[in-house]
Known about the structure:
This protein is α+β, with helices and mostly antiparallel strands. The chain is 30% helix and 20% strand.
Amino acid sequence: MWPFYRKVPLEEQLERLRPTGIIPNPGVTEADLLAFATKGKLERKPFRGLVEALARDIEREPFTPITDRLWLCDYERVEDHGAYRDVLLRLERMTGHALGLANVTDHVDIEAGRAFLQFTFQGQRVHWNLQVNDDWLDPTVLHEYDTLLLQTAADLRIYSNHADYGQSALLGAFTTEQKRIFDELTGIEMPMIATQK
């Protein structure tokens, strides 16, 4: 376990996270990371705060992910058509398009209590019916995506912590070895999504 009692420079933290696959996207600046916490705070409590900052989107145009491998996903996000499509496309981005999904469409009708996702996977059209609970995300989409990863040769899996972030969940895409390093560095509990109910 990394010693949490000493200050660790931000640059060193970023370098130590590289083997986990967590690398800031091109164009991301230190100022983007510091939009969520001061440098001093991130250095006094290493890794956890930085991981949470990296899991967000930049707070300026074009509002893209700071890193692709992490996502602090707000579960209260399903208001209309396109919401589940966006979730699925974000999962694909997290895994480097490991499943190669195409023709992703969705339908969301909260008043009628109807939502579904459709896409093409390995030449087959796939349809997932999803539960409607006001504007809350049905986590079935996360479980089903991870199940597809398991059925392929993809080495990446989806991990999640939804206990420590209120209405959000910290999601990560890691290989087994990357997750081992992540656990040693951060101490953040993130079980594999497929093991969660």
